[in-house]
Amino acid sequence: MNTQPLSASDRNSPASVAIIDAARTVIAERGLGGMSLRIVAEQAAASVGSINYRIGDRAALVDAVTQREIDLLRNEREVWRARMEGTDPVAAGVLADLVCEWLDGGARQRRVSAIVAAELILKASRDIAAAPLAGALMAEQAALWRDILNASPHGERLSDLISAYCRDEQPFSVLFADMLDYRLLRHSTVRALLRDRTAPARPEWGVWHMGLVDRLAEPAAAALDAGDHAPQGMRARLAEDIADLIISDGVDAVGHRSVAQAAGVAVSSVAHHYPTLRDLVFGGVEALYRRMRAELKQAAGAAPSGSAVIRLTHETALAASRDDAFSPFAIDMRRRRAENVHEDVARALGIAPGADRALTQAVVVAAIGRHVGLLATGQPPETLATFVARSF
Question: CA-CA-CA-CA torsion for 79, 80, 86, 92, nearest 10 degrees?
Fold first, then answer.
């Protein structure tokens, strides 16, 4: 069995690529926690022994998947360099179009890569051993935008800002690719992020943007209903234990045995209240959703949200890409995240509170993307004020 990192030639051999791409497909369909060597072997029409021989153990396969995503991004950079040669997308007025098209590409032809990258970055946010490769992956994402903005005098600043924005937005763009109101809201947010800030915001922009936010309340209604009907007794206690387990170790750590151990009860008791794995995860997400709603009702803080809630929004979006029952939670989490901090963002930007809600939401999305990146590379978080001062 391989124990050393694969060389580029070994990693790019046809047999290895077939195995690694099978693993990528499994991660996109089942999540990183649902990837096992046995399932990958079935997907690749290979044996577990051949995976061990060519790649190594499960950890080595995850590393190989990460490196494969880095390689694919490098290839994508070459395509974009040729496409943008000599063109300043800012001066041409097409940068917002490019960002939205990139996000749409992640929902369609690059869907597997978009989901896999989000899963890998989330893993690194909890596992410092995964930080170096996750950092290299995110550096490649930023480098792609530097290539696209090579002819722009503001390319360095904008590339970091856009890559942070896309890091947070991409899981939701994958999930809601066919939801018109969501795509319109995203377009409004991207335009605001890249708008010339020397020009005053028009009231019509805010009316349009907040109207879209309100329209998304309808598909989020199921989450609101669940949040208003909390379980009682032992079921409620277990839901809180599941929520704590998700916070500490992620959705992939949830199982009847792990919940029973955390709660100090018998596995049969957990199974009585939450018969299936889906029931367990759903109960924990509902509990965390209620916590998020309570947090949003409190006074605004210095950061867009806590690390646990930030991780939860991504994990819920990724879970919803595999099970539509989680979609209302993901919609409502996405639409609400600027509620408790938009006045703080406005002050940091030097504008009147409420003057440009599209911009303040765009800043929160980008700040959360930046926060996820810091978590995934083991760096300390930064305040909204620090992020705004550096990025705008």
Answer: 140
